[in-house]
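User: Show me an example of a complex going from sequences to structure tokens.

Assistant: Sure. Here are the input components:
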Amino acid sequence: MAASRIGAGTASGVPGEESLNTLLDVQDVTLRFGGVVALNRVSLQVAWGNITAIIGPNGAGKTTLFNCITGFYKPQNGHIILTPPNRPATHLHHLLGQSFAWSDLVHPGQVWGKLRAKMFGGPHSVCRAGIARTFQNIRLFKEMTVLENLLVAQYRQLNRYFFGGLLGTRHFRDEENMAINRAMEWLRFFSLEADADRLAGQLPYGHQRRVEMARSLCTDPMVLCLDEPAAGLNPMETQALSHLIRRLKNDFNLTILLIEHDIGLVMELSDHIVVLDHGEVIAQGCPADIQRNPRVVEAYLG
Amino acid sequence: MGHPLLTQPLLTAILVLLLTAPVSGLVLDGYDFNLRWQPPLWLTLIAFCIHWMILLFKRWRLGEKTGKPSPWSRVSSWGSRPSVHRLAFFVLPVVGLVLPFFLGKYGLTVAILALIYVLLALGLNIVVGLAGLLDLGFVAFYAVGAYGYALGHHYLGLGFWLSLPLGALLAACCGIVLGFPVLRMHGDYLAIVTLGFGEIIRLVLNNWMDFTGGPNGLRVDFPTFFGLEFSRHAKEGGIPIHEFLGIDYSSNTRNIFIYLVLFLVVLLILALVSRLKTMPLGRAWEALREDEIACRSLGINHVTVKLSAFALGAMIGGIGGVFFAASQGFVNPTSFTFFESALILAIVVLGGLGSIPGVMIAAVVLTVLPEMLRDFSDYRILVFGLAMVVMMIWRPQGLVRARRPVFQGRKA
């Protein structure tokens, strides 16, 4: 898995070109809850293989933006487009189900796709397209073991063999063992292998954070969205986390989208920073520019 | 605090005394009742001894193992099953298969009923215990299975063997039909809707006189075995099985046959459910119970996973219904009241949500015990309620806690 990623990374060409290589394109996303405008024409580009941080004061709409990107909310306007290298682009709003229009009468072929997305679409289709996420308040399956948590994340690869599973065929067992190995690899990466058979709910907080990251990585994503991964961690744990995130980027060529309040961590890690305030992008750029930007200093950094 | 080897059984004994004393100690005598003090004391003593022996046995097993006991006692191994389980694995089916030949007519009826409830409990265990969808109208699928057989027989002349898969399929479809509108519901709201669904089915069966016969019910043919009938005199052209085998006619033969078939089906369903639990689909059900939003963020389609839980649970309930109709020879709507739903749910909760051995034990206990306490039937529900309250205080996780699989011991 890791090897294929690294191979794909070297194939993409000159490092200088990478910044032009947009993987996730958020265009003019607007989301209203009744009269409240939570996101107002938010546009940002996430470059392939970069760490992009989204910062801003509480209530600025950071998590709302995450929810839009991962398909939990459906924005009223705008597009979110995922363009993996050498593969066709995916319009995420198509996966969530669009409303029917008169033009469907002209293109009856689209109706079936729309109907399917309406009935069976949702955040899980976004995940399948290659965007994984963690949650601000940890959402582990508390009554299941850590390893089971990671196996659930591989449901899509495993569930293809229903009858094979019922009969316990060799093929099915091989697949299961592969899934277990994959899960153990990620646990080893996060130094959690000792916790594999413990109930997720019994782990200390810092471990739970890492289990959640490992679990989302088991879905084999291209983009990993981390919602405040350092919240509640002590300085040493934060340091270790920063190291892990950097390794995810370098060794596995993951594109990472990060919400974080720990400015030190953000400045250290990110290649690109987007600042949100009151649902609008007030600045974006490299860490040094953001630190000097007077609007950001006024709104957030203080 | 005293020694746990004594205090725990003592607590059990006191509980048993409290629970059984009013039932076994008071004997109705016309409008009066007499006090009898021996039976409850005996029961108490037996309970004490059993618990004590279990503790001793556990201690002995712990001493036997070289490794220290795991601090995470809920996580126990599948790979290295304790020998008790392996023993139960082989002995119980044999006992179950031999049992009907030693039971009387009444005992057989009770045993069949107990097995039907085991089926129902296994079905509801998928919906409530694994997928975490509180279903208060499970009896609807039981009714669909039973009436599927009865109506199919009445209008289309379908036999038992064809009705078994068809009834299961029909119930599974009903499960999906119920599942679709309640996809977005959780907890209390889901419970209310499913409750309504259960009542709708019963009321339709009760009031659609022309089609279902209403409260008068429908007669059902008893099953046959490769065309051999279980009646004293076969219908035109048929051969009764006792003539074929050259044995004396006994009305028990039919019940023994139904019991054996039912027992095999229960074993089959048991194998199915325990496999499902360790399969990706079963894990997805449990994950859905734990956190639906996290599930969706991991690429699990909650619609299909939920519907599959409803469909499979309903299917097993429907099979139970077909057997119920076959064993009674008659169905009417009074067998499918809300009380049945509540009873099945109580079995699942008492047995331990998600625990397969637990719900099976609870199903047998909760169907056989009331039969044994027939003399005291007026107070059955009272004792039942009391048992529920006591259980929820002292063992909220149910009789047998659901186990979690362990992978590390197994070298992948």
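The lines above are the inputs; the final block is the predicted structure for all two components together. The two ends of chain B are 45 Å apart (CA to CA).
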